[in-house]
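Treating backbone geometry as a discrete language has practical consequences that deserve illustration. The amino acid sequence and the backbone structure tokens for this protein are reproduced below.
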Amino acid sequence: MGRAAILVARAVFPQTIERLRRHFEVEDNAADQAWSPAELSARLHGKAGLFATAGERIDAALLDANPQLRAVANMAVGYNNVDLPACTARGVLVTNTPDVLTETTADFGFALMMAAARRLAESERFLRRGEWSRWSYDMYTGSDVHGATLAILGMGRIGQAIARRGALGFGMRVIYHNRSRLAPGQEEALGARWVDKATLLAEADHLVLVLPYSAASHHAIGAAELASMKPTATLTNIARGGIVDDAALAAALRERRIAAAGLDVFEGEPQVHPDLLAVPNVVLTPHIGSATVATRRAMAELAATNLIAALGGATPPNLLNPEALGHAAR
């Protein structure tokens, strides 16, 4: 019996591809083309494994067209691109890459929050346009981060890392809202206090979103939530597009109902709502929260480790659906 065949959906580090080739017959995507759903399905024919990124949709139709598929290794923490129940029902193992990007993404989230608060993007554009000719007392005045109230919606690994930066590094008052509270000892160590969502929004000087995307969190921040925030507050989203109603946010920014925003994720990305592109008081980045060389290498290697284990008969270290292990081997 020959080696299992796998598909690598996007370009990744050559060293990762070489490692995978030692275990599998590999079809990779060195050209880094963004395949359509139909082309992805066609290329997946005969493959036992898929090395995916957050951009590929793994749904029931794809699974039904490729019944030989046994494992999907997602090179991301989030997995809202994967229909997990559909995979479980078909005995397809699904993995992600947590932990290795926590600190890097928290660094980026804090940087994005600070850029929004201190109006870095606005002032840089002003300078580049050659409009800086004199000093004035109110030129691009923003809001302080040190000593301010940091409000975190979602308190998983990344949320906790941001809380540590705020409390320990900047003397911030940290409040958070999460479906379940942290243990008292964790709250004390982080200097964080649980509040209900209404209080979180009302008291936030800087609101940071780090909750996972799901149907329940779709537009968790919409027009009503934005209306309950301070006009001096900032909003930072490093979670997932769809958690924020981008049209409502653009309107709130345009009308200065909140001061500024920093966004790394968007509804329908890579498209960005045109109204967001038209307002000056927002910092926009192209989903690069985990984008350091070391972290992306670690993500790729962990995804490879998961896929090697899944197709080698071992339990992957980051298995999302252990129920699928109970299905008969394909």
